[in-house]
Write a structure and sequence with these properties.
The complex is a heterodimer of chains A (259) and B (602). Chain A is an alpha+beta fold and 259 residues long. Chain A has helices spanning 5-28, 35-47, 51-61, 69-81, 85-98, 103-110, 134-157, 162-192; strands at 196-198, 203-206, 215-219, 224-231, 234-238, 245-249, 253-255. In chain B, helix 7 (540-549) runs antiparallel to helix 8 (554-570). Classes of the chains: A alpha+beta (259), B alpha+beta (602). The interface between A and B is large, with 66 and 50 residues.
Chain lengths: 259, 602
């Protein structure tokens, strides 16, 4: 095939540009050491009863801060089988934030010993807002709101069609306001409720952000907490059940993303 | 007459020998006196006391070495207790003696005499005997005039396991300086809670007594004719003495109160109580020793569960009796449930804890699906007031058990204890084997949702804001136009347009005077707009000067000035023909355009 010199240069540049992507793809493919292979290795270890090895493999998958609901759930299962229900609960709560409708995560959290509900969930009629992530609620509110706004503009632009569009405008208006209200409730529930869990058994809560400070009290793993402020590797936390507060080292906490 | 010394050189030697002889005589005399006769005697001090008071008996062994304290015989009307020994060394008239003294306290009881017989002891191979002693006991201190102690039980018969209150009442006419809580001799009873309270004064045999009462909860633990008490109450009284102390003691009286301190122990009479076992006849098989009156309430939650799921049972027992003996009854066999005991707590209704509410919480797990009617628990108890066994009515609990997953429900209710995450015991919650997820899924960064960002809310509500602006801005603009005050330039332009219109109208109708009048005003307004100032206030010279400064060309300037001159002339000869008006109007329009261009350039 005879190509002009300009075309040769373009092809060469395209192939050279493609090369790094091909190499990167080969590196991140399902080969040995890839997140997928480590995840499967962890699954095999946990299934064989080697929970500690399984957890080590899972830790290799979690190239911080990226994680997945399945990974967090399986880590919780491994901790649970090791008898560390508190640590398991922390991972399951994280999985719930990432994928709130995952039936296995819900089963793990509702099972006896699974930690039950968070302090702001018991008997709460609005806990249905936890079934979707905030992004999903946001899209559900965005669509009717934009449709409603468009109809309003249309009525203004074409006054002749205002009467015909009146019912649609009213209906979409109601739907938009309800969706905005539910979105507001979902955001406030997550932002006002606990946003961290203790991840270490007998986590010391100190009276000031120093290792030498006196321990005010200790919390078992999996205790939901509300963080108030952060200072040099320490979180000021409050226990929502009894309003006790103190400082906890950041590595002793699992922060739940506001999702 | 002095005999001369036959050998004066020996005089010092003779003096020395005399001194030696004198010293020997002194030491010999001392040695003879130091070896006094060994002796033993008894002494009593004082020899007269009041009833209830004590005296001190001293047995003195002189130069008899270490002699053990002899055991004294029992005496009537007094109790003798050994107090200890001491040693005393004395030198009298060069006579040194060592005495060992054993002391005894003689506690008298009633007025009369206390005879202490002659005492014989053996020491050094010899027997020594003391003289008999007599202690006179007068009326002494009458403790009953201070107060008395009483022990009161509600009834003479109680039952094993029954908890009942007893009272210790102290009636007193003088308040003690100090006191210890009363003690009660208990044999066959267990002491529970105790309270103390002051009661209103009582008059007994025409004497007014203050009263303090201790209430004590007792539980009988063995059957038989038992004696309860006596109760003892130890006090310290300080009485003001009648006579004043003399000597050094009087110096310290103000410092230490100056009264006589006396330790008084009040003692009650013991109570005879008959403790009975609840009868075996008619005893329910569930009876486990509960004595009293009780009511029972049982609740379960949830009542609709899957097989294998835990159900929390709450048993509230209220009433009066021995709550310590209450135990959660066992599940009847074949009930279809497994019982896992939980916690219990007691809330007393009175300070002694005789009445109150005891709450048991337990977990039961249904073993099979179906509707289970659980008749449990049954509490049987002995009611001492009616002397009969009683069993509470059955409390059937209807629990609907679904087949299926084990993980649908949890026990609800509040378990007492620290507010830590509640985890049912492992035995209660059989671990559900959670499966692993095989698909890793997309790896996400668990960052906060976009909803938490401010820009999202602007995007979300943009149509509403835009619509609101689109609706509001035209309205606002119209209102602004309608309501605002015009500027001076707008006013001048409006005036110019009006005058120009009137000028053209007058020219069209041939009214020369009106035409020239409006022509003048139009031109003045145009000059005002183009060069500033106030219309009509500029002189011709000023106008010429400003037009030159504004860059008006010479030809255009000539035309403007010619028009201004023509207007000035018109003041004196306003009449003009129609043709002249038309020419003047055309010239005026041209000058207006020139001035407008000038205005734009400026």
């Amino acid at each position: 095939m005879n190509l002009p010199p300009r075309r040769h240069g373009f092809l060469l540049g395209f192939l050279l540009g493609l090369l790094p992507w091909l190499l990167l793809g080969a590196t991140n493919g399902p080969g040995r050491g890839s997140p997928e292979s480590l995840f499967q290795l962890g699954n095999r270890e946990v299934a064989a009863g080697n929970y500690t090895n399984g957890l080590a493999s899972y830790s290799g998958v979690a190239t911080a801060p990226r994680t997945s609901a399945a990974l967090e759930y399986n880590r919780g299962v491994a901790w649970s089988r090791l008898g560390e229900e508190g640590r398991a609960l922390a991972h399951w709560r994280m999985a719930e934030r990432l994928d709130p409708r995952n039936p296995l995560v819900a089963t793990a959290l509702r099972r006896p010993g699974g930690g039950g509900s968070m302090p702001n969930e018991e008997g709460d009629l609005l806990r249905g807002t936890d079934r979707l992530t905030l992004d999903e609620w946001g899209i559900l509110a965005l669509i009717p709101t934009w449709c409603w706004g468009s109809l309003l503009f249309l009525r203004r632009w074409k006054p002749a069609a205002a009467v015909a569009l009146r019912g649609y405008t009213l209906g979409l208006g109601v739907i938009s306001l309800v969706a905005l209200g539910v979105l507001g409730v979902a955001v406030s529930r997550r932002s006002l409720g606990p946003d961290a869990l203790t991840s270490n058994p007998q986590t010391p809560v100190r009276i000031s952000p120093l290792d030498e400070a006196r321990t005010a009290f200790e919390l078992p793993a999996g205790t939901p907490l509300k963080t108030r402020s952060f200072r040099e590797g320490w979180y000021l936390v409050a226990d929502p059940r009894n309003e006790r507060s103190g400082w906890v080292r950041a590595q002793h906490l699992t922060r739940l993303p506001l999702r | 007459m002095v005999t001369p010394d036959p050998n004066p050189t020996l005089a010092p030697v003779r003096g020395f020998l005399r001194g030696i002889a004198l010293l020997a005589l002194f030491l010999g005399t001392l040695g003879l006196r130091a070896w006094a006769e060994p002796a033993f005697h008894a002494e009593l001090a004082p020899d007269t006391v009041g009833a209830g008071d004590s005296a001190m008996l001293r047995l003195v062994f002189t130069d008899l070495g270490d002699v053990e304290a002899p055991t004294l015989p029992a005496v009537t009307n007094a109790t003798i207790r050994y107090q200890g020994a001491s040693q005393q060394i004395s030198i009298v008239n060069f006579s040194r003696s060592t005495s060992l003294i054993h002391q005894y306290q003689v506690q008298t009881q009633n007025p009369g005499l206390v005879q202490i017989p002659a005492l014989s002891v053996e020491a050094g191979g010899q027997t020594y005997t003391s003289a008999p002693l007599t202690l006179r006991v007068g009326q002494g201190f009458d403790i009953s005039r201070i107060g008395f102690l009483r022990l009161v039980a509600p009834r003479p018969e109680v039952y094993v396991g029954e908890t009942f209150p007893v009272e210790i009442r102290f009636h007193y006419r003088e308040t003690p300086a100090r006191q210890a809580p009363p003690s009660l001799k208990l044999d066959g009873f267990i002491k529970g809670q105790q309270t103390v309270e002051n009661l209103p004064p009582e008059t007994i045999t025409n004497l007014l007594y203050s009263v303090v009462r201790w209430n004590i909860a007792l539980t009988a633990v063995k059957a038989g004719d038992l004696s309860l008490g006596p109760a003892e109450f130890q006090t310290l009284y300080v009485f003001q003495t009648q006579r004043r102390s003399r000597g050094m003691n009087s110096l310290f009286e103000p410092l230490f109160g100056g009264g006589e301190q006396r330790q008084l122990t009040f003692q009650s009479e013991p109570l005879a109580l008959k403790v009975l076992n609840p009868p075996t006849a008619g005893r329910p098989p569930q009876f486990a020793g509960a004595v009293g009156q009780f009511q029972l309430d049982v609740t379960a939650s949830p009542t609709n569960v899957a097989a294998g799921d835990p159900v929390t049972i709450r048993v509230d027992i209220t009433g009066r009796g021995n709550f310590d003996a209450l135990r959660l009854p066992d599940l009847p066999g074949g009930s279809g449930f497994q019982l896992y005991p939980g916690t219990n707590s007691f809330t007393p209704n009175d300070p002694l804890g005789l009445s109150g509410k005891k709450t048991f919480e337990a977990v039961i797990i249904p073993e099979s699906p179906g509707v289970h009617s659980l008749k449990w628990p049954v509490l049987a108890y002995w009611d001492p007031s009616t002397r009969a066994y009683r069993s509470d009515a059955d409390h059937p609990l209807s629990i609907h058990v679904r087949p299926g997953a084990q993980s649908q429900a949890q026990p609800v209710g509040t378990l007492p204890g620290p507010a830590e995450p509640r985890t049912p015991p492992d035995s209660v919650s059989p671990k559900l084997e959670l499966p692993l997820i095989a698909d890793l899924g997309p790896l996400l960064e668990p960052s906060p949702s976009s909803v938490t960002q401010p820009w999202f809310w602007w995007v979300l509500t943009f149509p509403l804001w835009a619509y609101a602006l689109a609706s509001w801005v035209p309205t606002w603009k119209r209102q602004w136009r309608e309501n605002r005050r015009p500027t001076a330039r707008e006013e001048a332009e409006r005036r110019l347009a009006k005058e120009a219109h009137s000028m053209r109208e007058a020219a069209g109708s041939g009214r020369a005077t009106d035409f020239l009048l409006h022509l003048n005003k139009t031109l003045q307004s145009r000059i005002e707009l183009s060069m500033g100032g106030v219309a009509g206030s500029l002189t011709t010279e000023e106008i010429n000067q400003r037009l030159a400064l504004a860059g008006l060309g010479p030809e255009e300037g000539l035309r403007v000035r010619a028009l201004l001159d023509r207007i000035a002339e018109a003041r004196f000869s306003p009449d003009s023909s129609t043709e002249e008006i038309s020419k003047l109007l055309a010239e005026t329009e041209e000058v207006l355009r020139i001035l407008e261009r000038l205005s734009r350039r400026a």
